[in-house]
Amino acid sequence: MGADVRFPHLGIEIENLGKSIDIGGFSIAYYGIIISLGMIFGYLMAAYQAKRTNQSAEMYLDLALWDIVFAVVGARTYYVIFSWDYYSKNPAEIVNTRGGGMAIYGGIIAGVITTFVFSKVRKVSFLRLVDTACAGLLVGQIIGRWGNFFNREAFGGYTDSFLAMQLKEADVNTSYINAELLEHIATVDGVRYIQVHPTFLYESMWNIIILIIILIFTERRKYNGQLFLIYLLGYGLGRVWIEGLRTDQLILFGTGIAVSQILSALVAIASAGLLIYNYKKGTCVHK
Predict the structure, then answer these.
(1) Pairing state of beta strands 186-188 and 191-196?
(2) Structural domain of 93
(3) Residue 286 located in a structural domain
(4) Is residue 162 part of a domain?
(5) Residue 218, by phi and psi: left (phi above 0), alpha (psi -120 to 50) or beta?
(6) Is residue 287 part of a domain?
(7) CA 80/CA 75 separation, integer angstroms
(8) Which residue ranges in the chain fall short of pLDDT 70?
(9) CB within 8 A of 177, min separation 6: which ones?
(10) Contact 150, 17 (CB under 8 A)
């Protein structure tokens, strides 16, 4: 009864928004489908960037296959580490990724480490690899965030802005519903909704802007690593803001501070510092 998801100020109502699809008796989560699509289109973007910069697209397929495996492991590991209070009591759930529970920063860290090792094995420039791959990473993030939409997760606190999103209270993990959301419950046709910031949408839109900047600067870059630094600066700045809105933050042990917010701030500051340093130094490396 009632729409599953509503955007009241936009006049949008989505009926029967499931979390999975049944094919031949098997249930396949939309989250997994969307993450898979993000990986595929992410590789295609990296291959496109490779051709633009006179590199082998096939090499980036090899890189993608390794990066994807270790990024998934890293994303899950990061999430489990900073949700250890729950997983220490439910160890069997550590390998259950069907309902979500992936942290993008863990995937990025694992992917960067994997790319560094790959560069040493193939004897190619690590900085050139990450310059090319970061556009693909952005595409994967832009698409992948919509998996959170289907899972009814990764949303923010209460808002009445024009992008405000309403979710059925019954469809949401109760641990993500804070007191402020309960104070602003909306009842429509007898159905209770929480009204939230659609932070998955904010991050997806923010990443589109960063991707456009990366694509524009690809043929204007002055040195290897510049595009990756722009990515880190842009994503870090956006994530500091967006993470602060979310109700499902991963908390740094014993601090009450969102670990991804701290990490984002550090990444943004460090990358900005390196961009400024290289600019003043007049760094220019053969492309």
Answers:
(1) antiparallel
(2) 5-281
(3) no
(4) yes
(5) alpha
(6) no
(7) 9
(8) 97-100, 254, 283-287
(9) 169, 194, 247
(10) yes
Identify the pLDDT of residue 140.
95
Phi/psi for 8 (5° steps) reads: -60, -35
Buried b / exposed e along 34-54 (16+ C-beta atoms within 10 A) = bbebbbebbbbbbbbbbeeee
Regarding pTM above 0.85, the answer is yes
pLDDT tens for residues 53-103? 999 999 999 999 999 999 999 999 988 888 877 788 878 778 776 656 778
Q: Angle 226-245/259-281 helices, nearest 10 degrees?
A: 150
Output DSSP code: residue 13: E
- Arithmetic mean of pLDDT over the chain: 91
pLDDT at position 103, please? 85
- Closest to 203 in 3D by CA, of 151, 258, 241, 248: 241
The strand pairing partners of 194, in sequence order, are 167
For 151-199, give the DSSP string.
HT-S-BS---STT-EEEEGGGS-GGG--HHHHHT-EEETTEEEEEE--H
CA distances from 12 to 30, 62, 83, 102 (A): 21, 42, 34, 28
Q: Which amino acid is at 25?
A: G
Q: How many domains does the chain have?
A: 1
Whole-number pLDDT of residue 287: 44
Q: Among candidates 131, 163, 165, 154, which has minimal Cα distance to 249?
A: 154
Packing angle of the helix pair 104-122, 126-144 (nearest 10 deg) = 150
Instruction: Provide the strand spans (E) within 73-170.
Output: 165-168
Amino acid symbol at 165: M
Residue with tokens 């832009």: 142
Residue 144 belongs to a domain: yes
